[in-house]
């Protein structure tokens, strides 16, 4: 009895250690599985791309449009109406264009899956892996509207003409930097290079629209 009693604590500790190791291993496996599943962006790539591009396009196009109108009209109403019209038209255009584009991509992938199925070279495809045109269109339109509303809000409450232009440029520049950083992080590209490219491109678009509209 004495021998068995002295062995019981040791056996109990060994069992506890085994259970702990098993629990830790199970948790690590679950974490690894989660990381692997979370790192697979194939299901989200389409709408992420549409969202980032839509926000950037909305910001640059509407800010440039407002800058062009502001170059010849000091009336705030004209600038706001032009910006709002650009927001609505651009969001609709982005949604329709993205929907048609993704539908075409989806049709091509479905046709390829059917050809492979007839040849017996692959299993039946999973519809969940196909791009979703409605999802991409909605994401693109909403993102465009979010990007476009920033310069509108920046100019809506400023009456002084020159100050309004400066605020629109400043807000657009800050937003372009944010979009550049987000796009770089999502794509795994160098942040500084991607951000500088987006920022300089936006400046060129606004300056070109302002200068050519004023010239004409």
Automatic annotation (TrEMBL):
Membrane protein topology class: Multi-pass membrane protein
Q: Which UniProt keywords apply?
A: Ion transport, Iron, Iron transport, Membrane, Transmembrane, Transmembrane helix, Transport, Vacuole
GO terms (BP aspect):
intracellular manganese ion homeostasis
Substrates-to-products reaction catalysed: Fe(2+)(in) = Fe(2+)(out)
Q: Which GO terms describe its cellular component?
A: vacuolar membrane
Name the domain of life.
Eukaryota
UniProt-recorded Gene Ontology molecular function terms: iron ion sequestering activity; iron ion transmembrane transporter activity; manganese ion transmembrane transporter activity
Keyword Zinc among record annotations: no
Q: Does the keyword Endoplasmic reticulum apply?
A: no
User: Which ranges does the record mark as transmembrane?
Assistant: 47-66, 78-96, 136-158, 165-186
Task: State the compartments where it is located.
Answer: Vacuole membrane
Q: What does this protein do?
A: Vacuolar Fe(2+) uptake transporter.
Provide the family line: Belongs to the CCC1 family.
The protein here is known as Vacuolar iron transporter
Q: Which organism is it from?
A: Hibiscus trionum
């Amino acid at each position: 009895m004495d021998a068995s009693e002295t062995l019981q604590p040791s056996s109990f500790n060994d069992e506890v250690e085994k259970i702990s190791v098993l629990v830790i291993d199970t948790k690590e496996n679950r974490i690894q599985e989660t990381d692997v599943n979370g790192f697979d962006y194939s299901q989200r790539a389409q709408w992420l791309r549409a969202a980032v591009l839509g926000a950037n396009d909305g910001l640059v196009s509407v800010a440039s449009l407002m800058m062009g109108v502001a170059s010849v009209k000091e009336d705030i109403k004209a600038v706001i109406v032009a910006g709002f019209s650009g927001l609505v038209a651009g969001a609709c255009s982005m949604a329709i264009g993205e929907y048609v584009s993704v539908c075409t991509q989806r049709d091509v992938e479905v046709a390829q899956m059917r050809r492979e199925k007839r040849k017996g070279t692959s299993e039946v495809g999973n519809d969940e892996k196909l791009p979703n045109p409605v999802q991409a269109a909605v994401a693109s339109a909403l993102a465009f509207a979010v990007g476009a509303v920033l310069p509108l809000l920046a100019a809506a409450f400023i009456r002084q003409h020159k100050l309004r232009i400066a605020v629109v440029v400043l807000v657009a520049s800050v937003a372009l930097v944010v979009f550049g950083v987000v796009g770089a992080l999502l794509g795994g590209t160098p942040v500084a290079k991607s951000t500088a490219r987006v920022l300089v491109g936006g400046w060129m678009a606004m300056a070109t629209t302002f200068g050519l509209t004023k010239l004409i």
